[in-house]
Amino acid sequence: QVQLVESGGGLVQAGGSLRLSCVASGRTFSPYDMGWFRQAPGKEREFVSAISWSTGSIYYADSVKGRFTVSRNSAKNTVYLQMNSLKPEDTAVYYCVARYSAHDLHEYEYDYWGQGTQVTVSA
Asked: How far apart (Å, rounded) are the C-alpha atoms in residues 20 and 26?
């Protein structure tokens, strides 16, 4: 069974930075894609970013483009989300996701989800 374990969330002031990490385990082969979603209180879960494990192609939501950077360490089966210039509206639980079958990177269906890590940005 695939397990995704996130870390790196916390409380930060507006304009600050945080780096999230997510380690995937439970499979002998690498995922096709990994990425991040988030859910703010009272709102629906929304896509943040995704990265293709084989090509390194990247996709961002418009709301984070230019501020967030997704990257991967293939040897460690780890995906990162560097979040800069954070805003109060970035406050949410951030979920790591992974899939082990081929999809267009712009598709939002993922098979595996982490437990989530809280990011709180104060004004």
From this structure: 20
Pairing of strands 3-7, 18-25: antiparallel
Among 114, 78, 118, 80, residue whose Cα is nearest residue 4 = 114
Whole-number Å distance between alpha carbons of 28 and 39:
30
Per-residue pLDDT of the chain (123 residues; tens, 9 = 90+): 899 999 999 999 999 999 999 999 998 788 889 999 999 999 999 999 999 998 999 999 999 999 999 999 999 999 999 999 999 999 999 999 999 988 888 889 999 999 999 999 999
Q: Would you tell me how many other CB atoms lie within 10 Å of the CB of residue 30?
A: 15
DSSP characters over 50-91: EEETTT--EEE-TTTTTTEEEEEEGGGTEEEEEE-S--GGG-
Report d(CA 63, CA 90) in Å as an integer.
9
Cα separation of 71 and 52, whole Å?
10
